[in-house]
Write a structure and sequence with these properties.
Layout (H helix, E strand, L loop, with lengths): L4 E4 L6 E4 L5 E5 L5 E6 L17 E6 L6 E2 L8 E7 L2 E6 L6 E6 L6 E2 L8 E7 L2 E6 L2 E6 L4 E4 L26 E3 L6 E3 L1
Antiparallel strand pairs: 1-2, 3-4, 4-5, 5-6, 7-8, 8-9, 9-10, 11-12, 12-13, 13-14, 15-16
């Protein structure tokens, strides 16, 4: 099926079709003037360091322009999940051999590696204020973008462990499904 990108006015519900073919993973800039996306769409291939005709690249579309502009022209591999933040575009790339968070300006210049994870790919990230949270391996890490210092977050999953609680049954015989008596009549097994 043909993939379309549509904007929706939240007040009126009016829909506008953007003139973009195969745009995916899109985000609008903070000022609302630019739409950043990848093309082509995800190819459902998880090959590490994929280079080929279906590698995702970053694009920018500005309303009123005739065409979108390709931002990642110098790299054969995949760049994806663009997130505009404070006049920069953050994204995932395996330019150093491992998927890490990178950034560029909104016109494709000033390329910089943000995270430097040596072993496991960064799978997702989110930015708020001056903080970047990202998942690498089984960990969540928090980075201060001003200092580039990252720390692993200590996560504890709290549960009330319902399955381990003592339970008193009011009518246990209603759960009886089978019964067997030993040959000597000394023991009974009930399930």
């Amino acid at each position: 099926p043909k993939l379309n990108t549509v904007t929706v006015n939240v007040e009126s519900g009016a829909k506008t079709l953007l003139p973009l073919e195969m745009a995916a993973e899109g985000n609008v800039s903070e000022d609302g003037d630019n739409y950043f996306f990848v093309r082509p769409t995800y190819h459902n291939n998880v090959t590490k360091r994929y280079e080929g005709g279906r590698d995702r690249q970053l694009w920018k579309y500005s309303e009123g322009t005739a065409e979108a502009v390709k931002l990642t022209k110098d790299y054969k591999g995949e760049d994806h999940h663009p997130v505009p933040h404070q006049d920069k575009l953050f994204f995932l790339s395996s330019r150093d051999g491992i998927v890490n968070v990178w950034s560029m300006d909104e016109n494709g210049g000033s390329l910089a590696q943000i995270t430097k994870e040596p072993s496991f790919d960064v799978r997702e990230f989110s930015i708020s204020g001056n903080q970047l949270v990202y998942r690498v391996g089984a960990d969540l890490k928090l980075m201060d973008l001003g200092t580039a210092n990252a720390k692993t977050l200590a996560i504890q999953l709290v549960s009330d462990f319902d399955q381990l609680r003592e339970v008193w049954v009011d009518n246990p015989m209603s759960y009886l499904s089978n019964m067997a008596v030993s040959n000597d009549g000394e023991r009974v097994v009930m399930t």
